[in-house]
């Protein structure tokens, strides 16, 4: 093994963890778990699926324990009681967004509590951080990380092959990882804590999707693509001796070690001219099966085969279900029924038209049947029924001619697994969902088995834009790959994505500020048009015309009164129209590619921005004039929004680390901007309903404030900010769009790049409270003269403070608690220090939203910068994780300086 060794970053057990990648060194960096006070309840706006699921992994020793991986949206664990998936990587932070791409998963059959994930989204410079192997000893509830000296490619070509990460089924401290980019095969002997290259492995692979691509994407060597152990060749506690490895090399695609990984050799007689996407071993019968394709996938592949290798004799046999000449697809999905090992299934993963195909053999590949056959072309006979009523948009609103059907069985079907404990249950992933069945053996009995979505809990859309109009549906979304939706119920799956036109990816959506039934959207499409209009709040759509030269959606804005539109598409310059785009006229005074938005009150005003200059139109977008430019960001992503109901009030967020980067506010239609001090970085900004009695709408940003990255809100026009997410809810990159809800105080919608749309509900749902740090003199919702003794919500007596202390989670040796300090006096607290004594000797571990010191059993906690000022009747909250050596009796002797606080 190479001398290079990677050390592990350690995170607290029992609570969600965050991670910090290594910089120039191949060493995992430790990071404290730092959870902000979770005063918000976060959930997904339900869509159910919406992206590629390239891997499903069942544990081989515990029933109902299964995991799924996505290419950009993290990993999930199956919850059998709810028949849904639980997200496991929502803690991944902004700086390590690439760790939301999961290239491989491994579940430990020796100790089912252990699960591993190899993470990293791109192997080129699109992803700034190296890959990592994450390891959990509590099924993904908490994680430790070891960064690698190279990148991994969860969203790269070949991502459906695998699994690249594997745990030795006899000696579970041993793991192998197949690396891309020529980095070879890697091994850990300490349960994933440290990794070293297996220098004896002879072939790092040589296949790339497109060698002529110079971006580092298509020309990347796809490397080592799967590892499979023959568990028969080892005993409990001893390393498995026979290990099979798949390599992205069409002439040398399978290697084997027979001495526990010390030496390796190419297996003689193997098929050539193809890549082995999967290698699955039937250890009972001694067969290694390979599914092969002429490309690495997941969406290409024109020819394929299936081969079987007899491990005892070395015999290779072509067991393909159809002749090679009759394939127009590659094979990838591959599974063995562990209850009946002679039963094998495989998929034609790249067959788009008329449908994917699934093959099944019950005699070890000697004969096959398939999920559907032609009766008399173009009619077909299916062995299955398919019910997508739980996710109705999976029909895509299509009405195809036979032999194509809707819904399809799928496409990009590289994940296929039969439950090792239940021959009737099978799951498989597609480019849009997870399908499954619970009566699979009907296939063999001659009756039809039922396929339904088994995807609830997986939310995998990439969100480009969000709009929350003041009436109609609470949310309209612009999404990658599946267009977008009108969300009338945030907790229900929409019936259908936007149609007429169907846009593959919607890049921008807008409604008319004073006429919100008028909506416009633009995006990518295989052909024209790239724009659609609605006059009924997005319920129904009609196609618009477009200027010549349009190649993509760009950004679009609707006049406040719905009387016109401004569009800045890809491929041509900014254009404007009156009516609904029957004809377009080029705008003047604004550069091609500028982002455009509308004033929310004045229908003649439109705004634009590009490369550090803000532009204003006062004639409906016909002409623009350059306005402010001093100090604004000249590079990086910039997003800006106009405040509803107020003419000329604009907020701008964006920039880059190498230049200006922050949040700016203009009240004069962009003639001048004021930078908000204290906001170090900001990437998107939006507005929601004002707090009770406040005169200004609530402002939401995704930003870095006071050194902390998060989702923030302000109820006083940016004078003070409160972080409303926590370190368990970060979702990687959230910079595309954010908007509040104009009808529900505190509600905010947040875009993610692979975890769908998140929405948060404030515990202060009536808007009557005060954000920590708010000045009571500027918050009309606070009455400094209120007598706390007359408020039934305040404790009686002379105490000027009250404290609630709640243990919110407890595990062996540890716990988590939330503390709320309320100012029940008549004057504002300008800085505070709260003290208590632990009855059972508990120790504070990590604290958020406050700074602790502890001397023996006495704890003293002081405010941080943003929550030191607490108005009368307002509260400041903080939380922490702690350790236990005995009991966990809550403290009851809280003191604010010299003042004893009431408890309750």
What Rg is obtained from the alpha carbons, in whole angstroms?
29 Å
Question: Percent helix among the residues?
Answer: under 10%
Number of helices: 1
Shape: globular
DSSP strand (E) fraction? 35-45%
Give the rounded overall mean pLDDT: 91
Record field, number of beta strands? 70
N- to C-terminal separation? Answer: 60 Å
How would you characterize the overall build of this protein?
- The chain is mainly β and 904 residues long.
- The chain has one helix and 70 strands.
- The strands form 18 sheets. Strands 28-32-31-30-29 form a five-stranded mixed β-sheet, with no helix packed on it. The chain has a five-stranded mixed β-sheet with strand order 63-67-60-59-70, with no helix packed on it.
- A hairpin with a 7-residue loop joins strand 44 and strand 45 (606-610).
- The radius of gyration is 29 Å and the shape is globular.
- InterPro entries: CBD2, CBM2/CBM3_carb-bd_dom_sf, CBM2_carb-bd_dom_sf, WD40/YVTN_repeat-like_dom_sf, Xyloglucanase_GH74.
- Belongs to the glycosyl hydrolase 74 family.
- Keywords: Carbohydrate metabolism, Glycosidase, Hydrolase, Polysaccharide degradation, Signal.
- Residues 1-21 form the signal peptide.
- Residues 756-800 are annotated as: Disordered.
Q: Characteristics of this structure?
A:
CBM2/CBM3_carb-bd_dom_sf, 37% strand, 904 residues, five-stranded mixed beta sheet, globular, mainly beta, carbohydrate metabolism, 70 strands, glycosidase, single chain
